Amino acid sequence: MRIDLHTHSSASDGTDTPAELVRNAAAAGLDVVALTDHDSTRGHAEAAAALPDGLTLVTGAELSCRIGGVSMHMLAYLFDPAEPGLLAERELVRDDRVPRAHAMIGKLNALGVGITWEQVARIAGDASVGRPHIASALVELGVVPTVSDAFTADWLADGGRAHAEKHESDPFEAIRLVKAAGGVTVFAHPAAVKRGRTVPEDTIARLAAAGLDGIEVDHTDHDAGTRDALRGVARDLGLLVTGSSDYHGSRKDVALGENTTDPEVYAEIVRRSAGAFPVPGAGGHVTA
Hints:
Layout: E1 3-7, H1 18-27, E2 32-35, H2 44-49, E3 56-67, E4 70-77, H3 84-95, H4 97-110, H5 117-124, H6 131-140, H7 171-180, E5 184-187, H8 201-209, E6 214-218, H9 224-237, E7 240-243, H10 263-272
Parallel strand pairs: 1-2, 2-3, 5-6, 6-7
Antiparallel strand pairs: 3-4, 4-5
Helix pairs in contact: 5-6
């Protein structure tokens, strides 16, 4: 089985619609794909309706969190999307995205970049606006060659010249809310140093003690040495180890299935969940 547990659609900052994403996942030879848009479950129904035979959909979201001044992302899987506490927190995070985008556009204008809200809104379409949409605008303007090049201290990285804060959840509260909604939590790309400051290992230990289920080890932002170190952290703390593409369509140069999760780990995630079930095609279904 080939299992990719971290992808994005146009419901947040990917370029594939949810229907296109599941079709592309099947074409890439995946058996299981998780749709984990930023703080949003809007794409789940469309993805499920378009699910090809032979592909299983795991519903989820990537939650924006912050601790000790460090931004971090929490992947949440198979939770009840209507659970009031988690729903209210996701809406609070999403509602703060527009004023944050306006603030970053203002900072870029002050740096001499001719970016406009209208340009960013066009790129975002119906999705919740985020930094990748602003980064795409910078690519259009020729300011940077790629979206990844916008996420530096010169531009949009945490603490960068054009960065602006938004509301982000406390990760301990996020774990509590996801658990209350029957879901499973995995710390996304915990050592992605090129994105900015990262959470120290002692904090990961505290998160594990609070109920964190796993860490995403095999990720394009982690080199081989980092992956080995994170596997050691996971082993010491009793955490699950996942791998994924963090696919964003054409917005990032990463292919579906570029990194994958072990089937036994996937089965354990399903076993621990109580808020939702994977949506199966003809294959790839795990009975837990």
